Amino acid sequence: MHALRWIALLVCIIAGFSRAGAAQQQDPLHDYRLPQFSTDARLRQPVTCTALGTPLTDLLKRLSGQTGVSLRASQRVAQWRAVVRVENLPLVELMASLAAAFDLSWRVLPGKEGQPPAYEIYQTPAQAQRERESFERRVQILERALPQALAEAQRRVEKGETGADLFPPADRRDDLVQQYASSLVIRPKLRAAAMLLTPQVIRRLVQGEDVYFSGDRLSTQQQNLFTAASPTPSSMSGAVQGQVALVRWQHQPWYSQLHVSIRYRAGNGGGGSYGTNLLLPPDPQSSSPRWYDTTDIRTVLRQDELRRALPEEGTPPKHLTVAEAIHRLSVMVPINVVAEYYPLSMHFTYPSGAGRNAQEVLQIILSPALYDIRRAGNTLIFAARRRYEHRLCDVPACQIRRWLHSGEWFGLRVQSLREMYQLPPIQRRALGLWASKECDRFGREGDYRAVVYASISDLLYAEGTAVGLWRLLMALPPAAQLRVLSGQPVTVNEFAQVGNLPLIDVSPPFFPFALADLLPREAVRLQATREVTQHWACDKARFGSIDGLHGLWLSKPGESLTAFRRRLREQEKVNCERFVQVEVETIRLRLLTVKSGRIEPEFALARFKQAVPASR
Predict the structure, then answer these.
(1) CA distance 577 to 446
(2) DSSP letter at 401?
(3) Closest listed residue to residue 255, CA positions, set 235, 279, 234
(4) Which of 594, 265, 602 is nearest to 466 (CA)?
(5) Which of 82, 291, 415, 585, by CA, is between 20 and 30 Å from 475?
(6) Cα dihedral across residues 518, 519, 521, 523: positive or negative
(7) d(Cα 547, Cα 446) in Å, to the nearest integer?
(8) Max intra-chain CA distance, the chain
């Protein structure tokens, strides 16, 4: 009888541990709560808060002012941005949800004498290691799979496999090597470029470096592959031909891929460029180990919640950002939401509409496979899947604000551009791509800010002769940059390294080639002229949308506001309600070579002062 009591006691203890373990698994916030959370009564007060991409440091300051609890963010995480919409949620739950969304921790800081303790959100060494490990696993998979895929592709080509034979059978469709091999057979140019991706090169790429290969270093077999046509119909232009001048690989974390650009040497009917991508493998240990999203939305929202909509709304809005779509879902259900948000790499918008009900909204949020979504009570927590890559791209909001805002003026200055070019290449390109999306967004609204974002996009992200010259200028040492901008000619040969040169067209139209073709065979000089003019602009789009200065009604240099308003009304039949002052800095960069002549593209950097009414 005594033994039976001991057995029953043991069973109860085991059952208690099992229930505790199950409770921990069911509560996604368990690992993000401090013991002090349950003893500090101040943290039980309800809070209501909305933030659409607010830096953590600003969000926590707002919550501190609302609750009286001192909350702060460590320097490392202070500028990471959050999307939050909560109503009457206990502060302790919001704190734990923020930590869970970003995979961070809270620590208690002693208050001043006689004051209650403060709380700081920060990243532990273990969390930093976990962030890196997910990305590291994917890179290691690529390093192992790519040589096998190249060998498999070569085997298929030698056997003459074409058409449907190029694709793996259904039972092997999740085989990464087979998928890569199919892409390499279909795209021989990608196969030739992938041969250059040694483990050392891959490491340089994922650490943020652009890697260049001169065409002179390619084998005959590689040169032949770079000019070979695809064995299947392709949407890519087949016009590129000739000898390869330059191959550039770069990492594009916002699309989770490696991108290759191939520039062909001009002459004898050749020339042109070609670009294609190689997706990075998904993390096999993630909740969705595929290139696409596999989330079961029924685990996120109940069936009745999925059907909910906004009854008074007509046509759903279009062109919502990720942050706006998450906010829309929160209002529609309604449900609390807490998300980490990196606008420079989460720049997706939803042009086809934002969804008529919660199910459609949730599906479009999940379509780019950006988030793992967990539910804790009545709160959805959005944790980024490729967190390491998003943070690699991120530029603090306060830094962007400093570059674009100066008192009452909004716009771009040469010094701001020079600072942007000091960013790592990955951040610079992410900033340029984000600016192109901002240009689209403000341009559709007829907002003059689109002009500024168009300039940033052109100078940081776009390709072409004019942009190449600007990048060449920014590749020079600071002292040489200042000499060029002050009007002095500078010979770039003494500074330039062929491997880091941008792609610049310096030959007649339709025969582009890389600047590397000129160096070191002839001297290349760079010189600039600058002019600043003052204008008035009508705060109204000229062609329905704005994507540059030409999209605005702009006064002539020296034309008064009164004369400009009269000309708009009488000649252009335009009634303008508000005007903005515009300062335009025109920069002409001149590239001079002995044999190829010169090119002189023009850049216009615009700065806008606050709008004034037409009655002024």
Answers:
(1) 13
(2) H
(3) 279
(4) 602
(5) 585
(6) positive
(7) 9
(8) 107
**Token pair of 277, please?**
């991508």
Site of tokens 């001297």 = 523
CA 388 – CA 134 distance, rounded (Å)? 8
CA atoms within 13 A on the CB side of 75: 0
Q: Once rounded to an integer, what is the mean pLDDT over residues 562-576?
A: 87
Could you give the angle at which helices 125-159 and 199-206 cross, rounded to 10 degrees?
Answer: 130
CA 363 to chain CA mean position, Å = 21
How does 548-580 read in b/e, with b if 16+ C-beta sit within 10 Å?
Answer: ebebbbbbeeeeeeeebbeebeeeeeeebeebb
Give the Cβ contact number of residue 449 at 10 Å. 19
Predicted confidence (pLDDT) per residue in 177-195, tens digit: 888 998 899 888 999 999 9
Give this prediction's pTM. Answer: 0.86
| Per-residue DSSP letter, 434 | H
Are 1 and 349 within 8 A, CB to CB?
A: no
SS3 271: strand
| Distance separating alpha carbons of residues 365 and 404, to the nearest angstrom | 30
E-state strands within 489-577: 490-491, 524-541, 552-554
User: Would you state the structure tokens that stand for residue 157, as one six-digit string?
Assistant: 């080509």
Percent of the chain with pLDDT over 90: 43
Q: Quick one: tokens of 112?
A: 């001043």
Contact predicate 323/348, CB 8 Å: no
pLDDT score at 379: 97
At residue 8 the predicted structure's pLDDT band, cuts being 50, 70 and 90, is low
Q: Looking at residue 174, what is its pLDDT?
A: 59
Q: What are phi and psi of 313, to 5 degrees?
A: -85, 140
Per-residue pLDDT reduced to its tens digit, 130-139: 999 988 988 9
Coil, helix or strand for 229? coil
* Greater model confidence, 230 or 381: 381
N- to C-terminal Cα distance for the chain? 99
Looking up tokens 């949308």, which residue turns up?
545
At 19 the pLDDT is 43
Residue with token string 């216009």:
604
Range with the poorest average pLDDT among 56-70, 302-316, 429-443, 492-506: 492-506
Please enumerate in sequence order all residues whose Cβ is within 8 A of that of 70, keeping only pairs 6 or more positions apart, or say none: 64, 109, 111, 116, 117, 118, 119
Distance CA(428)–CA(281), nearest Å, equals 24
d(CA 293, CA 373): 11
Q: What is the mean pLDDT of the chain?
A: 82
Is residue 280 within 8 Å of 257, Cβ to Cβ? yes
Question: Helix (H, G, I), strand (E, B), or coil: what is residue 246?
Answer: strand
- Per the rule left: phi > 0, alpha: psi between -120 and 50, beta: everything else, 31 is alpha
**Residue 210, SS3?**
coil
> Hey, how many other C-beta atoms are within 10 angstroms of the C-beta on 306?
18
| Contact by Cβ (8 Å): 332, 309 | yes
**What phi, psi does 339 have (nearest 5°)?**
-140, 145
Evaluate whether 343 touches 53 at the Cβ level (below 8 Å).
yes
